[in-house]
Every structure is written in C-alpha cells, then in structure tokens.
Write a structure and sequence with these properties.
It comes from Picrophilus torridus (strain ATCC 700027 / DSM 9790 / JCM 10055 / NBRC 100828 / KAW 2/3). One of its GO terms (molecular function) is structural constituent of ribosome. Keywords: Ribonucleoprotein, Ribosomal protein. With 65 residues, this protein is mostly helical. The protein has a single domain, classed as Orthogonal Bundle (Helix Hairpins). The chain is 74% helix and 0% strand. It contains three helices and no strands. α2 runs antiparallel to α3.
C-alpha cells in the first residue's frame, strides 16, 4: 500500500517509527530473497519500498523543524 506524504503527516511520531521499521524489514526480506537467487515477487516492489522509506524519513525531518 502506497502512503502519500499527506497521510504520513497526519501520523504521530510513534506511528511513523513503526511504519519505518516495518518498511525496512520488508525491504530486507525482498533483498534477501533476491540474494538467495530467487526472482523478486514484483520487480518494482523494492523500488516502491525504498521510496516509501524516503517519504517517511522526509516527513520525520519536517516534523523536527
């Protein structure tokens, strides 16, 4: 599920941290499956996860200001 910045800005800091950790975990799973020689379940999934992580980090930085 894609999360847009607007939805992320409405989340609390704790929710953002939870979302970030779950995204990093799913990216790790995708990378490990590819490293073991398997084909990725969806070729664009890793890119999508990386972008979602970037969105979460951006919103977290915005909230610090």
């Amino acid at each position: 599920m894609e999360l847009r910045a607007k939805a992320l800005r409405e989340m609390s800091d704790e929710e953002l941290n939870e979302k970030l950790s779950s995204l990093k975990e799913s990216l790790l799973r995708e990378r490990s499956s590819v490293a073991m020689g398997g084909a990725p379940s969806s070729p664009g999934k890793m890119r999508s996860i990386r972008r979602q992580i970037a969105r979460v980090l951006t919103v977290m930085e915005e909230k610090k200001r």
